[in-house]
Structure formats: C-alpha cells, structure tokens
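Record type: ASSEMBLY
Status: queued
Input:
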Amino acid sequence: DAGVIQSPRHEVTEMGQEVTLRCKPISGHDYLFWYRQTMMRGLELLIYFNNNVPIDDSGMPEDRFSAKMPNASFSTLKIQPSEPRDSAVYFCASSLRRTAAYGYTFGSGTRLTVV
Amino acid sequence: AQTVTQSQPEMSVQEAETVTLSCTYDTSESDYYLFWYKQPPSRQMILVIRQEAYKQQNATENRFSVNFQKAAKSFSLKISDSQLGDAAMYFCAYRNPRGQLTFGSGTQLTVLP
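Status: finished
Output:
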C-alpha cells in the first residue's frame, strides 16, 4: 500500500496563474478530504467527497477554488487565479467509511507558494 | 458546529519525563470519535491514538494514553517516558458522525535532552 499520494510536493507560482494540486487516495477508500494548513488558521477542511460525490464544500474559501473527483482513484484541487494569500500546505486525506473510526490517512502535502 | 480547542501553543518536557497535552471540544452530538495526530518537521500527519466516545475506557498505545472526560468534553494526551523523537506538533481532532474531521490549533512539543 503506497498510502495517499499527492503531487507536486512543492509548487511555486506567480500571482494570477492557475494551480492544480493532485491526489491519489488509498485504493478502496471511499472518503476523500482536502485540507489547507496555514500558521494563522491552522488545519481547515476545504471539501470532502464520499464515493466521488462532493458532500460538503462549505470550507472552500471562494469561487477561485474548485475540486473534482472524476473517479475513485484521483482528485484535483484547482485555484484560478492564484493569490499570495493562497500560500499554504494543502493536504489530501482518505478513509474507508466502515473503518473511519480508525482515523484518516494523510498524504505528505503540497506546499504552495504564490509570489 | 464543532470546535476543538488546544490552549497550550507550546510545551516542553525533559527526556524520559511525562507530559500532558490538553484538548477540549464542543459538540451536541453523542456519537463521535477523537484523535491525536502528530506532525513532525517532515509535515507528515501521523495518527497517534484514537478514542470512541461510547467507550468509557481510556485508550492506550504504548507510551501514549488519553484521559477522556466525556461530560467535561475533555481529551488530553499523556506521553510517558518522552523521547527525542516525540518532538513535533500535536493536533487534537474531532470526527462527527458524518465523517468530518475538525482539528485544534496544535501544541508544539519540545523534548529537552
């Protein structure tokens, strides 16, 4: 089991550019979460999916952010256009519903820097 | 909405000693789970220990144990025989019945040799 795989590990982009973060959950997991971590706001839940369907996107900061899960093995988080205040570490996590009580498995995160 | 509060931004402990990290939460639900995650400088989020709300017995994982006080909505983490490798940011987290995981602001633990 390779765990939750996120790419890229680091991303530096200029303000106004489109950024796409990628996540491959653990095979068979039916929950997928996107979190953002900053010093000021800590770990914030942005959106989560169950069986590829978005369940709650109330944490998505604004319309510049969008997330998709076209299939059970892939999800993207897109920021367009990016702004310096979007700089953060973005985590993806996955879980199997029936074992969610055992916690969620996190990827290594993508550190995004918008200059 | 659920909130998770960690009132200790920083803690330090001498190697081989015991330290307790505090966490309180606010919820109106009866069925939930609580977790402690560890985040070392590598930034990987590592599950340390979990507790089911319906269980009165406190969870234990080797040197890590919790003091779960459901009525007080308190969930503290005790680390015994602290090791240098325990140095990290520790996050308390609450999972509601719908699967959402909410984190506290974290406690930075320093282990002194």
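Annotation: Chain B has a mean pLDDT of 94.
Annotation: The longest strand of chain B covers residues 88-95.
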